[in-house]
Amino acid sequence: DAGITQSPRHKVTETGTPVTLRCHQTENHRYMYWYRQDPGHGLRLIHYSYGVKDTDKGEVSDGYSVSRSKTEDFLLTLESATSSQTSVYFCAISETGATNYGYTFGSGTRLTVV
Amino acid sequence: AQSVAQPEDQVNVAEGNPLTVKCTYSVSGNPYLFWYVQYPNRGLQFLLKYITGDNLVKGSYGFEAEFNKSQTSFHLKKPSALVSDSALYFCAVRDSGYNKLIFGAGTRLAVHP
Lengths: 114, 113
Description:
Oligomer: heterodimer
Number of helices of chain B: 0
Low-confidence stretches of chain A: none
Strand content of chain B: over 45%
Mean pLDDT of chain B: 94
């Protein structure tokens, strides 16, 4: 989607290796989010950020860490990947203006841990 | 805690018939409600939202949703289904704490010719 990009789009990694996913926005929005999508669970929040260096845990944060050193970048790190972290990961930003309140999602990263 | 329920895993509809995808929510304060659609191997596309105002919200691709405060529901509807509407549909509600979006588990819509 315009204004938000995720990289890589696909990744296969081995169990036990660290993995970092990147979310980049050009909209200068304060709030950014990482979700994972799994069948039967919808999208579940992993971590979120409400400003540079301001982050907090979501519903399913175990095994994940995040960093936000610049407004435009929000990184998700799997410290030691496990097969249970095989999933599709989505980044999102939110627009909080009164007239255009909403959320924009990236195209997703399909991660496979073997 | 805020939550969203989509009681149907799958909805089957014949092309040309009306469709409804159900959503109920639990939230403190005024709800901000959203519907998204996901086509196979694609990201999430915004369909419509309710923030305030008219309870009947019109969105993309001919979809609409009705906000019902007393029943805490926000069902997605379309008067005449198309085969191309077949996709995964997500209802979501905003958690006012840090603007988080809470999703339902999703409903798969299958429209048959």
